[in-house]
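Run: sequence + nicotinamide-adenine-dinucleotide -> complex structure.
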Amino acid sequence: MTSSPAKVALVTGAARGIGLATVKRFLAEGWRVALLDIAGELQASAAAALKNPDATLAITCDVSDAAAVRAAMAAVMSRFGRLDALVNNAGIAVFAPVLETGDDDWARIMAVNLTGPFLCTKAAAPLMREQGGGAIVNITSISAVRASTLRSAYGTSKAGLAHLTKQLAVELASLNIRVNAVAPGPVDTAMAKQVHSKEIRADYHDAIPLNRYGLEEELAEAIYFLCSERASYITGQILAVDGGFDAAGIGLP
Ligand code: NAD
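>> structure
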């Protein structure tokens, strides 16, 4: 009897933070993983640090570039021959009052956070269809459901991605492709270090019932679960992993 080949996941924004923790989670379960990131050097060193060259593939790609995304999917197929899960994790944040949000910043946030997942899904779904199905997880944010100051662009991009998740779940169900989202509360990654001021940090701690930031590994666990067979009947859902922040109903700092 021949054993079936290890499953394959593609994680965008995989060089660090929640993306890299997710890569490690998949590898721990015996999957093979394509690490896609715009930061080529960082992502190559992340892949090297995993010390698992047979099971990893580093791809330098901007998720907002349709041709580059198609080439990335081709690279995954040429190396691994299949694609079982896509994690649309790459994202950028600019926190600024709406009147001070640059037109370019607005456009870039939409391009990376919303158009990127659209392009990656469009390129990945036909590959999944060929092999009878797959799973997609989009990383949104608690900012998708809570309006606040400073996040007009970021929150709107993530709310768009949350809705896209539901649209895709309904449309792609006939291809046996499940589509869900994970909505993190604050996680102390490079992104949070860049946009969370001291005041925002203090307010978050007060507003989160569990009283702390989330860990990258806690997000990775939820993302892996939604990609796994254990979630075989779950599609179109947005799972908040936020220490109870959304449930508490307190405004974002
Ligand atoms: P991070 O900045 O640490 O990592 C993001 C990665 O995405 C980086 O490696 C970066 O190089 C890559 N990236 C950026 N633009 C890209 C592009 N155009 N194409 C390909 N790769 C690109 O961020 P993180 O905190 O790990 O965030 C991961 C996801 O989680 C993001 O979508 C973010 O919006 C979301 N999120 C984070 C938090 C938080 O508090 N950290 C909260 C809610 C949601």
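>> summary
The chain has a mean pLDDT of 95. The beta strands are 8-12, 32-37, 56-60, 85-88, 134-139, 177-184, 238-241.
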